[in-house]
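Intended use. Records like the one below are meant for learning the mapping from a protein sequence to its folded structure. Do not use them to infer anything beyond what is encoded.
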Amino acid sequence: MAMVDRQTKTCLVLGGRSFAGRCLVVRLLKLGNWIVRVADSTHSLQLDSSDCNYDLPLNRAISTGFASYFHVDVRNKRSIINAIESSSVVFYMDDDDSCNLDFFSGYAIIVQGVKNVISACRDRKVKRLIYQSTADVVLDGSHDIHNGNETLLYATKFKNVYSELKAQAEALVLNANDMDGLVTCAIRPTNIFGPGDKHLLPSLVDVAKSSWAKFIIGSDGSMSDYTYVENAAHALICAEAALCSRMVVVSGKVFFITNLEPMGSWEFSLRMLEGLGYFRPKVKLPPMVVNFIVYLIKWMHSNPNSKNLSHSVSIVVQLMSRTTTYDCSSAQQHLQYSPVVSVDEGVTSTIESFSHLAKGSASTIYDVLNEHSKMEELLGGGEVAAILLWRDQRKSFMCFCSVVSVFYWFFLCERTAVSSISLMLLIIIIFLYGFATVSDENSQMSTQLSRCLRFEVSETTMKTCARVIASNWNGVGYVTRSLAQGKDWNLFSKVVSSLYLFKLLIVNSFPTSLGIALALSFIMFFVYEQYEEEIDGVIGILMELVRRLLVFLMSQLPLTSVLQHKTTTRHSMR
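Structure written out for the chain above:
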């Protein structure tokens, strides 16, 4: 890094509480010749006194007057001007949450926000504006990049909305160079990681904790460049120094920033995950297959948890399926940039900071203990759920054996129901008579027997049973009236299908159907819980295909065409 004037300078860090912004603020304060004005979208500055790496230095600087905080909404130019006052330099990075916004909200914050920042800088005669962009602005998601440099054009088809908006914002910053004395430049870090990361490592952990953990997603031969967060912050400071000393070759330019250590995408990811205690996957899945499955999950599910997992899988697929390496020689030559933290050191510190996400940590164990599956909620989460989902394997196996024994006794021994029940009652009576005879000499055993034989039903239970019976009776009445009116064909088809299945499965082959149902109850619930997302995806696909087939068949019926013709005729007459 070039030598800078030791005279104290004032700068504004927009997005100063973001992932990279926090690191930049701390590095500026450690240099000792900066007065840092921190600006972010949060209304108040909430510092964590236990965070010695980031929040503690800022807290000290605020108490000594070397730092101050401003709430800024970049959509409001006036709030930017209030924060930018008396600053000679503006470092601008987006908030962490801006990459999750829809197009219209993202445009207002990222693109319109940059326009407001540039206008405020020109109004207040700010000398330098350095923008943190992203290398994703040249990625289209379908082509590899080998040692790409700054001559690469913007992608013709961006991999997501965020990359497209960042490309527009970056272009605006570069075009604003040399306007009203303002000089600008931008840096493009690649795959930023480090403590406080909210996207890359959390996405890897989400995938590792899900049913995708057994798969190698994408190509295990792809290469990628990575940038530790402190190196990205260091590059911003280098860019500011270069704008002071070598303005002609730096202003209006953009520079790729990496750790200068390209490596296999899976090698990097597995180093992170294995450091957190997760296992190495074995089975490979092609990116095309994974993308198709993720698309279907996003299309069919409204569950936020499913959408979050799909988003995490998408990030991992994009990272693993393509080679994306970049040439940093321009930044090394013109910005005097070189990494201050190696990949090995960065991975180690990142793993330490995310110890709460490690497999077997207190937080993950708590999440597992408090997480209820769909099957557990369906079965009521009680003793029945614990047995059918094999929470206690010994108890579940004993219950399974008991059910098989009862089924064999009643249905497979060629006995009639009356003879089976009679024999069972005889055994129970003999057992009770023997137990009573033994307990005559032991009052405690007699008391226990009387408690077991006592049958009590509370008033609340009886009221609940009565409400359930009344509700079911009313439901049957409603269905009967709807069928009698002959208007709801959907209900008619459901009732007919249910009655036919009842006749086919229960009436004609009751013993076989009951045996299959009992066996499947101990198998299907457990299997579904283990592969819930995959089974839901397949069922959703089949249901959607059936729905579309029914719509197509209904559209081909002559009756539908006649009704459509009549409706069209009525509208034309009106």
